[in-house]
Amino acid sequence: MMDPKSVVYKPASKNKPVQNSSKGKTVIALINTPNSGTEEIFSHFSNSFGCTLQNSQVDDVFYAPCVNPKSVSIVKSHDKRATVPLLRRLLRHLQQYEIPTECLIVTALRDPQKWFSTKFIENHKKMLCGMTDMTADEAIEEYQMWFERDAIYNRYMLQSVIRGFLNKYGVTLSKQMKLMQKNGGYSVVPPVPALKEIQGRGVPVESVCSLLLLDYDKLRESPERFNDVLPGALYQSPKKRQMCSEDAARYKTIRRAIRSYKFTNEELEKFIGKDDFSPYLEDW
C-alpha cells in the first residue's frame, strides 16, 4: 500500500493549488455551507472538466467523475458528516491501487449580511411573489422577524461545515480571512500529516487533503481569479433564476431592499450570543 505521505496533496505554487497531473488522480470535495454559492462553484468545475453528476449511495452527497481530464473527480455536498466517510473510502481505494492522488477540500465563505439576505429570499420566494400587495417596508419587517425567529438554526448552519474543518486543520477563521483578502479571494491550508490513522477507516482526510477556503463574494467580483485558484476551472456565468411570473418589477424592488438592509450591531450581538459558537461567529 502506498505510504500516505506520498498521497498528500502538494500545491504546485502559492497561486496554483492543484497541479492536475495526468499521472495521478485529483479529487475535489466541495463541502459547502448552504446559500454560499455551491451550485455556481460546482458549475465552474463540472463545465470546465466535463463532469457528470451522479447520486452516491449516501443521502445528500453527489459524485461527479470527469472526462476532461479523466484524472479529476468531484464530490459535492452540504453535509460534512456524510461526505467525509465517502471521501475517506475513495482515497483509501486510490491508495490501495497505488494511484498518486491530489486531494482538495473546498468550502466557501460569504459576507454575513449577504448570506442572510440570500437565505431569506430563497426560502421565502413564494411569499414574496404571492403577496402582490406587499411593500418593501413590509418585506423588511418580515426579514427582521425571520432573523430573530430562526437565529438558533442559522447559527448552527453557519458553523456546521467550516468550523469542524478549521478545528481539524488547526487554523483560525480570522487568520484565514486575512489571507483570503491578501490573495484576492482564497487561502490554502496544507494537510496535517501528524493526524493518526483511524482504526479500520484509514488515515483522516485532513492528513491527505489540503483545504481551500474561498471568499465567494470576492471571487464573483473578479471571476477570472477562479483560473488562478484551480487551473482549468474557468468561470461560467450562473443562469439567472426565474423571478415572479407576474409583477417582476415589484419583486425586484423588494429583493433589492432586502439585500440593502443592514442589521444593527445590537441585532448582530444578540445573534452571536455567548456560547461555544460565539467565538467563531465573532470572527465571521
Structure summarized in a few sentences:
The protein has 284 residues and is α/β, with parallel strands linked by helices. The protein is built from 14 helices and 7 strands. The N terminus is likely disordered.
Structure notes:
It is built from 14 helices and seven strands. By secondary structure, it is an alpha/beta fold. It has a seven-stranded mixed β-sheet, with helices on both faces. Helix 6 crosses helix 12 (248-260). The longest helix is centred in the first third of the chain and has 17 residues, at 80-96. Residues 1-16 have low confidence and may be disordered.
Features:
46% helix, 284 residues, seven-stranded mixed sheet, disordered N terminus, globular
Question: What is the secondary structure topology, with strand pairs?
Answer:
Elements: H1 4-7, E1 25-31, H2 38-49, E2 54-55, E3 61-65, E4 72-77, H3 80-96, E5 101-109, H4 112-123, H5 125-130, H6 136-149, H7 151-159, H8 162-169, H9 173-183, E6 186-189, E7 210-215, H10 216-221, H11 225-229, H12 248-260, H13 265-272, H14 278-283
Parallel strand pairs: 1-4, 1-5, 5-7
Antiparallel strand pairs: 2-3, 3-4, 6-7
Helix pairs in contact: 6-12
